Amino acid sequence: MSEQQLGALREQKDEFFKTSPKSPLMPKQQRNFTGLNYYPYNEALDLTVEVTQFEEKTDVQVQTTSGEARWYRRYGEFTFEVDGETARLTIYQAPHGYFLPFVDAGAGDETYPSGRYIEPQQVSGDTFHIDLNQVYNPYCAYSHGWSCPITPAENRLSVKVEAGEKIPSKEWAV
């Protein structure tokens, strides 16, 4: 995705958050909403990766922010480079498709502590497109009352992924 296309998507998302009745924001938050925080576009983090499927695709129970549990199937893993460091992440299968939650080293300061998400797009076979510029915060980052998966330990990175949404830091945030 180009920087211009990403900018247009971000504008649409900000408009949705500000005006839609389906926004995760409460009405008072919507009135005060000034836009989400984003990292600048980073072409190096628009990835096409080869995923190594797990021989045994086990189901894992993932806790949510509301204390309930959800089940995901461990599909496979891939590695990529971030500022010269190698990182490894696991992709999960969910009823709606592929799911990639992760926490990076900026969690709590720059990024949401429970993790950010993206839905990897299968290109063909074990090749996936994962544009980390499109990672987003779960709705529970913006308002109480949402139940969001907490990133499993295997997807907690020791490097910062400076792409996608940042933690909300405006007066409209929770």
General description of the model:
The protein is an alpha+beta fold. It has a domain of 117 residues. Helices cover 13% and strands 31% of the residues. It is built from two helices and nine strands. Strands 2, 3, 4, 5, 6 and 7 form a six-stranded antiparallel β-sheet that branches. Strands 1-9-8 form a three-stranded antiparallel β-sheet, with no helix packed on it. The model has no long low-confidence stretch (mean pLDDT 92).
Count all strands and give the number.
Answer: 9
- Helix-residue proportion: 10-25%
- Strand content bin: 25-35%
The H/E string reads: HHEEEEEEEEE
Main sheet record = 6 strands, antiparallel
Indicate the radius of gyration in whole angstroms: 16 Å
Oligomeric state of the chains in view: single chain
Low-confidence stretches: none
Mean of residue pLDDT?
A: 92
- N- to C-terminal separation? 31 Å
Category by helix and strand content: alpha+beta
How would you describe the shape? Answer: globular
Number of helices: 2
Distinctive features:
single chain, 2 helices, 9 strands, alpha+beta, 174 residues
Question: Would you spell out the secondary-structure blueprint of this structure?
Answer:
Layout: H1 3-19, H2 27-32, E1 46-50, E2 52-53, E3 59-63, E4 69-82, E5 85-94, E6 97-102, E7 116-118, E8 121-124, E9 127-131
Antiparallel strand pairs: 1-9, 2-4, 3-4, 4-5, 5-6, 6-7, 8-9
